[in-house]
Design goal:
The longest helix has 17 residues. The chain is built from 3 helices and 13 strands, in the order βββαβββββαβββββα. By secondary structure, the chain is an alpha+beta fold.
């Protein structure tokens, strides 16, 4: 990977990585994804995985309920075409936007793709000694605390166009967890949220990116 004005990137004929050092405005990210998805579908560009952070904001998925937006004036709110409900993005949370041509991988199966994203997150967390778990009926990755409470540490929300994926995952490294109080995260009111920092782990953005890149290849590599 090479450094380039706050952005680290590596590319091959099949897959490009962008590891962003700045906070990317959400409209810019959405526009970039839309353009890249079209280019991938038309064979004009390689697949892309883009790791970044956003300024504080809320996004509403296609299943979002207005009542789950508890504090609508707290941060900007963006409607988005991904699946799921309300979620928060902000500093200290790493977002992974994944743009893959599922047909190229012989995996034109959206359910399988979501399972692969979950596996990517589980493997990444395991590298830091965290046991991330799936829960039936609840998309995302959860951590079971000694008290028996379950807290969400990573979220998933995807969209597919012409079998090219976009949107993706987010993993809480060290965000301000109070920012989640403005929404009912993913429509689940009786569960909390956590982060690597809350679990006592000091993980740098660079270290998290490195592990995400390595574990991605283990799940999605050919």
């Amino acid at each position: 990977m090479r450094a380039a004005t706050g952005l680290r990137e590596a590319a091959s004929e099949r897959l490009e990585w962008r590891l962003e050092g700045r906070q990317v405005p959400y409209p810019e990210a959405l526009r970039t994804m839309e353009e890249r998805v079209a280019a991938i579908a038309e064979g004009r560009a390689p697949e892309l995985v883009w790791l970044l952070e956003h300024p504080p904001l809320y996004t509403a998925g296609t299943s979002a309920k207005p009542s789950d937006l508890v504090q609508p004036e707290r941060f900007p709110v963006f409607q988005t075409g991904r699946g799921g409900q309300y979620t928060y993005h902000g500093p200290g949370q790493r977002v992974g936007y994944v743009m893959l041509d599922l047909q190229r991988h012989g995996r034109a199966d959206l359910r399988r793709y979501v399972q692969d994203l979950e596996e990517w997150l589980v493997r990444t967390l395991a590298r830091f000694g965290v046991r991330g778990e799936r829960r039936s009926g609840r998309v995302g990755i959860w951590v079971a605390r000694p008290t028996g409470a379950e807290e969400k540490i990573a979220a998933i929300g995807v969209r597919v166009r012409r079998w090219v994926t976009y949107h993706g995952v987010s993993i809480n490294r060290d965000p301000d967890l109070s920012h989640f109080e403005g929404i009912v995260p993913c429509g689940i009111a009786d569960r909390g949220v956590t982060s690597l920092a809350k679990l006592g782990l000091a993980v740098s953005p660079e270290e998290l990116d490195r592990v995400l890149v390595e574990e991605f290849e283990g799940v999605f590599g050919e």
